[in-house]
Amino acid sequence: MEMPRTYRSSAFPERLGIRDFRSDALRGTTATARRLTVKVAAKETQVVTAVDEMVRLEGYALADADETMLSRWSSATYDLTTAAKLSELALARIKATAAERRLADIDEEVGRISEEQGRIRQNLGAVPSQSKLATNYMRDMKDQEDALASLRTQRKKADAQLKQYGDSVGAIVRAF
Q1: 158 and 127 both lie in a single domain
Q2: Whole-angstrom Cα distance, residue 106 to residue 151?
Q3: Which of 22, 46, 85, 131 could be stapled to 40 by a disulfide with Cβ–Cβ 3.0 to 4.6 Å?
Q4: Selection from 55, 23, 17, 54 nearest residue 37 by Cα
């Protein structure tokens, strides 16, 4: 139940960001006040309704925003529900970015091993096949092949994780 209230405002509405003021009794404004006028006979009361609203619209470009921007927006918004959603999205983006970095690291390691294998193949062609050096090169090749097999497994897992995190980010954006 709404109770009648009496207000006296001496604030500077424009400085407070108020963009919408409505009242049937509004008769004028000054730089520091709004003037409401109502005729009230002796021993009578009069109800005056005044609506003083601060309109705040917030828009966010979620599709391309990185986790840093999302965190900043989350801290700056006044709406707690929006802040929580932005924080959730920022955390999902952090996980997706980490998964992307992990994939890039794996791909870089595969590239490094491939280059090393090319060098070893060249060296194998230049040494006698039964020499100790050739045996060492063959052992190195085997170790690198084992590492590549491990990296392929890691890449599949990281790729699946990236897809999962990407789907999570997409779901959060769609639900916004």
Answers
A1: yes
A2: 6
A3: 46
A4: 23
Residues 77 and 145 in one domain: yes
pLDDT tens-digit map of 49-95 = 888 776 665 666 777 788 888 888 888 887 888 889 889 999 999 99
> How many Cα atoms sit within 13 Å of 104 on the Cβ side?
6
Q: What is the CA radius of gyration of the chain?
A: 34
Q: Are 15 and 1 in contact (CB under 8 A)?
A: no
Same domain, 43 and 76: no
Tell me the residue range of the domain where 23 lies: 13-53
Determine the Cα–Cα distance for residues 107 and 140; give it in Å rounded to an integer. Answer: 20
Dmax (CA) for the chain in angstroms is: 120
pTM for this entry: 0.59
Residues 145 and 88 in one domain: yes
